[in-house]
Design a protein that fits this description.
Number of strands: 3
Radius of gyration: 21 Å
Order of helices and strands: EHEHE
Shape: elongated
Distance between the termini: 43 Å
C-alpha cells in the first residue's frame, strides 16, 4: 500500500434476507385469554408493553393482562408463575 493512500474498511456485512416460518400457534384467538406482559426492567420496556396491552385490549374482548417486572437477569421465580398462569406471554427487551 502506498503511503499517500488511506485504506477505508467498511465494517458492515452484506444484507441478507431469510424467510422462516412462524412459530406454531396454540391459540385460535386471544379473545378471553390471559396474557402475561413481562418487563425486563430496562428503560421504556414498561411503556412498550403498556402500548401492546392497549392494542390487545382494543382488538380482543375479555382479555386479561398480567404485568410482571423481572428485576434481575437471574430472577426466574415469576417466570414459572407467569407461564403457568397465562395462555401466552409477551417478553419485552428495551432500552
Amino acid at each position: 500500500m502506498r503511503e499517500d493512500y488511506i485504506e477505508i474498511v467498511n465494517p458492515t456485512a452484506t444484507r441478507s434476507v431469510e424467510q422462516t416460518k412462524l412459530a406454531p400457534r396454540r391459540l385460535e384467538s386471544l379473545r378471553g385469554s390471559r396474557i402475561g406482559l413481562l418487563d425486563n426492567n430496562k428503560p421504556n420496556a414498561d411503556k412498550f408493553l403498556g402500548y401492546v396491552g392497549e392494542l390487545l385490549n382494543a382488538r380482543y374482548d375479555g382479555i386479561e393482562l398480567v404485568a410482571k417486572r423481572k428485576m434481575t437477569r437471574t430472577e426466574a421465580d415469576c417466570l414459572v408463575e407467569l407461564s403457568s398462569g397465562c395462555d401466552a406471554v409477551i417478553n419485552a427487551f428495551a432500552d
